[in-house]
Amino acid sequence: MMTTQGVPGPSLGSQGVSPVAAGPEGTQAAAGPAAIATRGLTKRYGKTSALTDCTITVPEGRISALIGPNGAGKTTLLRLLACLARPTAGQATVNGSTPRQDPAFLASIGFLAQEIPLYRRLTAEDHIRAGAHLNPRWDAESVRERLTALKIPLDRAVGKLSGGQRAQVALALTLAKRPRLLLLDEPVAALDPLARRNFLGLLADAAAMGDLTVVLSSHLVADLERVCDHLVMLASSRVQLCGDIEDLLAEHKVLVGPRKDITAIERSHQVIQITRTPKQTTLMVRLNGPVLDPAFEANDVGLEELVLAYMGQDAPPALAHMTTVGEDQ
Amino acid sequence: MTWLVWRQHRAQFYVGAALLAALAVLLVITGLQMASQYHSALVACAANHNCANLASTLFLGSHAVGFLVIMTLGAPILVGLFWGAPLVAAELETGTSNFAWTQSVTRKRWLAVKTGWMLLAAAVWGGVISALVTWWSGPNNALQLDQFKPGRFDITGIVPVAYALFGMALGIAAGAVIRRTLPAVAVTLGGFIAVRTLIALLARPHYISAITVTYKLLGNDTPPASAWQIAQGVLGPNGQAIPAPNGVAIDNVPISYLPASCAAPTPTNGGVRVAPSCSQALAHFHGFVTYQPASRFWAFQGIEAGIFLVLAAALIAVAAAVLLHRDV
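The joint structure predicted for all components is written out below.
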């Protein structure tokens, strides 16, 4: 019998979690200026907390994966950063200023909502021209080129395009604004695998060329792994992880060893997940130094494994308790 | 911003313009016919010296067009329903607000430009309809002298402009607060009818103190026909209002308020003759009529328009407060 047990620990927030996490005064971290820095950002709708005490830093030029289960607060965080919602508490700094209703701030961010918001009766060309009227910087030609290359008609009402085509139009429009920070909420969900790959490649190119920072939400880790170099993980409205993916992977190990008391390991490392079979114990740990117990073998972790371990940690306590009871029998 | 407003609403604009053009053609043609009909009737009655009862013998125009003109009572709210209510609600409902409000235009400017054009459209809509109806009603007003009466007052002059602005503002505010188009349309329609009815019934008669004249029951004193008559009836010996007769009555005084001698009037060939004691009793009763004179027509138009403009401004302020200070 095998049981997997989440470790319901105290909220990790990001205190000491991210190598670049810092308050607003720390935006000039070693990794360069921060495109996004939040401190205690909280959003409540009535009694429900959509985002709780979120403190993250995303350095400029990164492509950051915003990962979390449905309802974790990903959309709320993006909407707060785009000035579409106002925080209940805490503060955010985007490109050095607080998100606000100001033409210069709005010009610096590109936001694409999950539901692909376009005027269904207007054509792609209408949207391109609207964008030209509404933005100081607007690269209309890039949109036309891109959509023509994708064989998407510019003169058809976007309501008559397929879901994937509509998503491409919306993405191209968001990029045409030439923002410094691109906030994309599940942008690839409507795309087929090939279009998804092309789009992510395009994002990587755009980010490599200029001072563009991208935050990309999804729950498909495999898609993000290819292009993202930074990770923000949310679960149950709280930040679980925030940092460079490389660093995060280096900090975490899977320890495999005999079924034995793990108090010593728990004392020196942070145990994220425990999986027990009658003969073996597998631990996902965040290291605070070398593993001294020779009985345990340390293995590298993959991004998906890491993310799943943190999601598992978030499992409801009742469930965790039940698996523990099963183990005792 | 204006380009987007035009692109989003141009189809509705064409529909609105076509409706106005159709109404204009219809009213100009029938209006000219009515004017010439009235003119020749006046010439004819002057020749026959019987112009006094022209109002009761002459009917101008056709019932169908007359009905259509009365129906313009509902025209001011149409722009509020079709343009006002969806203005914010449809953007929120379909998520296009996420596109509109993340371009480099602040929400404040977005609302100001959109609302500005919408209010202008509403004013033009109400103004053109009212101008047409007011001109068309000229001969009828001269004949029937009814421009101050409820129903007519509401479709001529400047009040239709104020109603259309109010309807538009109500639609925009309802859409911003409710955030869904259909409920916002329903609230706009219900709210418009309720406010218009309440103000017309409860407030309008009292904008300026009405004139009340009393007269001896056996005499008569009616206000000028062009006045808006608000109430009339009978006052008892102590000045108390006597309810309208519901049964046998003499000179509109119910028999129960009168001495027994009134109960058996003597029929004569011209009607009835009452006993002298009954006549004495009747002499203590007075007729009264309460009215607003026709000279106050424009003052009333101005006051009513002012009320609806203030309401419209308040509703726009509500929409702005909701949109700028709440999450979207």
